[in-house]
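Batch manifest line 162
LIGAND: adenosine-5'-diphosphate
JOB: complex structure
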Amino acid sequence: MRRVIYPGSFDPITNGHLDVINRAATLFDEVVVSVAFNEQKQGLFSVDERMALLREVSPKLPNIRIAQFEGLLMDFARRQEATAVVRGLRAVSDFEFEFQMALMNRKLEPQIETIFLMPAEKYTYLSSRIVKEIARLGGDVSAFVPVSVAAALREKFATPKG
Ligand code: ADP
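JOB STATUS: finished
ARTIFACT:
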């Protein structure tokens, strides 16, 4: 059983994340999309909201599971009996941080590999951060996120009436 963990903030999930999930699902028996809970890093969406959106928009494949974790990724990966961790690489700018993380994680848990997948080119400029920024300023994000995520963003940034 080859199980891979796809960890991240997913605040919120974008079409770029979905691209990585789909690619990972063809390579592994199970993909555990795992929302990192981090008290220091308050997101726009709560972990529960992020999980709900992930459940709603993730491909309905039997080998995709949504989870959350707190603490060290490698501890979680070990408990899940994962073979590997997958991360998305968009551009050279992602590389340095990911390289450091991957090598540190290997020190912590030599049995679990980190693998990198590149999304389709059209997603290489996409990040949750930039999507939130566009939505906050009232821009149209429908090309970058699933319909229900766009709706959730509109709701978050809606100016209170009255
Ligand atoms: P982080 O928690 O590190 O800020 P995210 O939660 O946004 O990262 O994303 C989790 C993972 O998904 C990371 O490996 C990130 O590189 C990857 N990722 C994010 N957006 C994209 C995208 N548009 N295409 C491919 N991978 C992406």
